[in-house]
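note to self: dont lose this again. the chain is below, predicted strucutre after it. 189 aa total, dont forget to put it in the shared folder this time
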Amino acid sequence: MSKGVLGPVLAALVVLGAGTTAGAVGDPAGDVTGEAAGGATGGAAGHVLGQMAGHVVGEVVGAEADLAHHGHVSLWDGRVGVWLVTENHGPSDLVDATVRLDFSTPMAGGQELPPGCLWSSSRVVSCRTGALPDGGAAGELALDLRAVGRPQELTVDVSTAWRAGGVDRNSVNDRHRVLVLATGDPYVF
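---
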């Protein structure tokens, strides 16, 4: 490969690799393929590097697991109720994951959370799901929180913060923004 082509190829690899994790994985013998060449976009980067080495290589990624969060949120008299189930639609098992609940209004301090949950800030709660086998679900998570004041509405962003190295190619069903009015009604996501 000529020097005139090598420069743009390396620049493209830098762009493909930007924003990926630093946890490179590759062949111990030093073959730079798949995730070592660019994390989540490693397939394209590994393919380019493989062609540079004279062969085409497959994509190397973490186990694929499609996580989904479903439930509902209610707001009444300054109280916020969250009921949530996390499911793994597969195809691989996950040893653990973390769901993140980000409230637009701060919650009152001094509130205890269920085991496996912690306050990341006055507006954010993070909870472990535990093991999620392919086709399985975590037990229901129920939170009964008090907001600061008595908001007439708030939003809750529900998302997966961590998935034990797994890859989720369908992140649409594990990211939700829910507008909740102070009616006491369940707002489903």
